[in-house]
């Protein structure tokens, strides 16, 4: 069988509009929704950009998450090693049973019960922002600390160690550094998590780690390593993602006065607005990586066992076959099943919590600061092209 030819010499990353997908990705999707491409690491792999094809890939059992190369980093070295409880780096059957143990703690009911606490955290941060007076950096004062506080509360992280967790979470999400730097951040996180697990074992509370320690565990898998892996994945996955959506979502809303006015006039639109923000911004900007565990057909193309594949969820969420006029940002759009939380076995376990947080955040922010506006033009903002999740590095605002 001949080697597949490379049709995309470099996967596009540059954006002429910071709120739209990279230039050229729509042409690639239209020409070939499954195609060969060269990635940042210099490796060749399959690039999947069509909505139906990405869904088919993410639900297929014939792909593993234990990829040989990190395609989106500069050196291609994989730093994460799969372990029990880590979910993102596990395949079935362990993934299925470990996810079941964790999912018990993420019921819609339990997440809804967090509402008052999230509202309090949001209000306290806005009190401080109001007292300080504008202009402020909304990323530093609000988008970063709010999700960090929510997940730290859920995990019982002591107040004095929260800043360090936040620092590590950021260090682990860079793609413009070598594998050693990412690994060093991972080691620091491991140390903090070990301490946290030992404290919860000695003195259980009503937090999520204590709940996992005491959960029914017929196979005896919930040991220290399981707890550290699970807590590490959850902390990292919950913090940076939600922070990016708050910062970037606020930037987009403040840049679109017509949509902002609609939401200010009718706050009951907030759930709808959050779904459109999630779709439009789909912050997992490079897409999820998988490797074929056997020869398989995807979108009419044959993928051989051992070949790597990227599910470009951002391109998929702008597929006109999925959503009409994808480039129109419209908070009144009927919510469609976007792929911002992924799809299939690894679909985001924290999506209910993320939705609740984002709804409370945007409703409260616009109500409490009704004249909120950007203090710097969008063209001057620094966007997170150097991180796994897209967003803004700073967001100067005033009111
Ligand atoms: C707006 C915020 C969020 C976004 C955009 C987001 C996005 C995603 C995506 C795309 C995946 C799938 C990754 C893949 O298939 O390779 C995922 C998985 C995951 N997310 Fe989220 N997430 C968010 C918030 C959260 C929160 C708040 C939590 C926890 C409280 C969380 C925990 C997880 C975990 C544990 C997984 C792995 C699930 C598995 O592998 O089975 N996420 N998330």
Tally of separate domains: 1
CATH class, named Mainly Alpha
Ends: how far apart? 63 Å
Our Rg estimate from Cα atoms comes to: 21 Å
Please list the strands of the largest sheet in the order they lie side by side: 1-2-8-5-3
CATH homologous superfamily label: Cytochrome P450
How many DSSP E strands?
10
Low-confidence stretches: none
Beta-strand content bin: 5-15%
CATH architecture: Orthogonal Bundle
Order of helices and strands: HEEHEHHHEHHHHHHHHEEEEHHEE
- In helices, the fraction of residues equals 40-55%
Overall outline: globular
Q: Main beta sheet, described?
A: 5 strands, mixed
Question: Which fold name corresponds to the CATH topology?
Answer: Cytochrome p450
Secondary-structure-based class equals: alpha+beta
Number of helices: 15
Mean pLDDT: 92
Bound molecules: protoporphyrin IX containing FE
Task: Give the tags.
Cyt_P450_CS, monooxygenase, heme, 9% strand, globular, binds protoporphyrin IX containing FE, metal-binding, alpha+beta, 399 residues, Cytochrome, 5-stranded mixed sheet
């Amino acid at each position: 069988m001949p080697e597949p030819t490379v049709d995309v010499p470099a996967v596009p990353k540059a954006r002429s509009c910071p709120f739209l997908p990279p230039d050229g990705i729509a042409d690639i999707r239209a020409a070939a929704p499954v195609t060969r491409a060269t990635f940042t690491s210099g490796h060749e792999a399959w690039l999947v950009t069509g909505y139906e094809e990405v869904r088919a890939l993410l639900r297929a059992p014939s792909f593993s998450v234990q990829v040989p190369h990190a395609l989106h980093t500069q050196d291609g070295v994989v730093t994460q090693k799969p372990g029990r409880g880590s979910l993102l780096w596990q395949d079935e059957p362990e993934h299925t049973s470990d996810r079941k143990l964790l999912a018990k703690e993420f019921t819609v009911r339990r997440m809804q019960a967090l509402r008052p606490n999230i509202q309090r955290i949001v209000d306290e941060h806005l009190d401080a922002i109001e007292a300080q007076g504008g202009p402020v950096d909304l990323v530093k004062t609000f988008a970063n600390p709010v999700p960090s506080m929510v997940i730290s509360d859920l995990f019982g992280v002591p107040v004095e160690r929260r800043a360090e967790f936040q620092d590590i979470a950021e260090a682990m999400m860079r793609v413009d550094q070598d594998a050693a730097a990412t690994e060093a951040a991972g080691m620091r996180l491991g140390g903090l998590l070990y301490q946290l697990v030992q404290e919860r074992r000695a003195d259980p509370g009503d937090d999520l780690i204590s709940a996992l320690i005491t959960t029914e565990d017929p196979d005896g898998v919930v040991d220290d390593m399981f707890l550290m892996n699970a807590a590490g994945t959850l902390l990292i996955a919950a913090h940076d993602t939600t922070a990016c959506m708050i910062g970037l979502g606020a930037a987009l809303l403040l840049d679109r006065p017509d949509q902002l006015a609609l939401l200010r006039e009718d706050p009951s639109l907030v759930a709808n607005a959050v779904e459109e923000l999630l779709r439009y911004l789909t912050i997992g900007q490079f897409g999820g990586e998988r490797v074929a565990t056997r020869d398989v057909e995807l979108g009419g193309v044959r993928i051989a066992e051992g070949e790597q594949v990227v599910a470009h969820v951002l391109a998929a969420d702008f597929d006109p076959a999925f959503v009409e006029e994808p480039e129109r940002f419209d908070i009144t759009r009927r919510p469609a099943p976007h792929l911002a939380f992924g799809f299939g076995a690894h679909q985001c376990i924290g999506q209910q919590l993320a939705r609740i947080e984002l709804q409370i955040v945007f409703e409260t922010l616009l109500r409490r600061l009704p004249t909120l506006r950007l203090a710097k033009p969008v063209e001057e903002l620094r966007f997170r092209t150097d991180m796994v999740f897209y967003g803004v590095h700073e967001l100067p605002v005033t009111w």
